[in-house]
Amino acid sequence: MYNFSAGPAQLPNEVLIKAQHDLLDWQGCGISVMEMPFSSDEYKQISDCAYNDLSKLINLPDNYRILFLQGGAYAHFSLIAMNLMGHKATADYVQTGHWSTRAINEAKRYGQVNIIASSEQSGFNQIPPYHQWKLDPDAAYCHITTNETANGVQFHKIPDIQTVPLVADVTSDFLTRQLDISQFGLIYASAQKNIGPTGLTIVIIRDDLLNQAMEIVPAVFNYGRQAQSRVNTPPTYSVYIAGLMFSWLLEQGGIQHFELQNRDKAKKLYDFIDSDEFYHYTVDVADRSIVNVCFELNDPEMTEDFITEANHNGLINLRGHGVRGGIRASLYNSMPVEGVDTLIDFMQDYSANYSLPTLQNTVSHS
Ligand SMILES: Cc1ncc(COP(=O)(O)O)c(C=O)c1O
């Protein structure tokens, strides 16, 4: 079975088997990770190892901190504004689809939000070209969503913004391609796509931004407070699974390896869609996502049947996000190349079968 869910997404078998092995008794200590005090030596070892492996994977510069928090990226849409707009009244946002729009709507509660570029007019089918952005040098930060999970568009070049800190929601493409962390003031991601199970939200922040918070920000969500010392109980089990994922990613060859593989997987699927008139996609080729491939059947009435047939063939969770419908194949790090090949084979058979009666009709009528 191949699970194309956009999130919570599939995890590698190796990670699940390791977790199963450790479930009742972590490394002979007699208890499960779920039962450990977060102040224990055992949990400290798990958390430090996850922190160090993640730092290695992303080449974390010395002046950045990784925070293992909760709330999900949706909560951090507000928390980013509360943590970074303490001294400045405005923030810039680039609107590229469903999730950046949610981020904008939340941030508006805490200050003035300037939408400095938007692709709404074109149905969020592209990333607005950087030269059109109207950046405000006095803004607290400029926010982007590196990959729009629902719309299937992605920044393939991260803009080099010098004037204000660049803040990015990287929830759906974190660790799927190399990023230069020093280009950002802050990045954040929910875990359930490429990192592990839900419950963990990772925030990576540059040191100089740790003291920009508003008075009202709750202590557990104050990035500066959390960086100083742990305020509350961390999502220990999610951090543990994330740690297993990080070590698996390193063992497999690191992000460089996965980036190449992810680009190949996506290209294969897009190339196939381009070659078969039965399917199409509407996003601009230059901005199409390598992790959430969104496409449609030319006859939208066939969509439900396609999804049902795919399920019967062990290809599950292909339904597109509610805001745009159609089909979405999420090809995160854990999706093997064989999963994409199997999907393409299925799509080929499906279109051939569907086209057959039409062909026979043509023959019998001629
Ligand atoms: C890009 C992006 N941002 C934010 C979110 C919201 O994440 P959560 O539901 O974990 O808060 C999602 C969820 O799919 C997402 O894809």
Explain how this protein is built.
The protein is α/β, with parallel strands linked by helices. The protein has two domains: 239 residues, Aspartate Aminotransferase, domain 2, CATH 3.40.640.10; 112 residues, Aspartate Aminotransferase, domain 1 (Alpha-Beta Complex), CATH 3.90.1150.10. It is built from nine helices and 14 strands. The protein has a seven-stranded mixed sheet. Helix 1 packs across helix 6, helix 2 packs across helix 6 and helix 3 crosses helix 4. The longest helix has 29 residues. The C terminus is likely disordered. Bound molecules: pyridoxal-5'-phosphate.
CATH topology of the largest domain: the name is Aspartate Aminotransferase, domain 2
What is the total number of structural domains?
2
Bound molecules: pyridoxal-5'-phosphate
| Low-confidence region ranges | 358-366
How far apart the termini lie comes to 43 Å
Tell me the strand order in the biggest sheet.
2-10-9-8-5-3-4
DSSP E strands, number: 14
CATH class of the largest domain: Alpha Beta
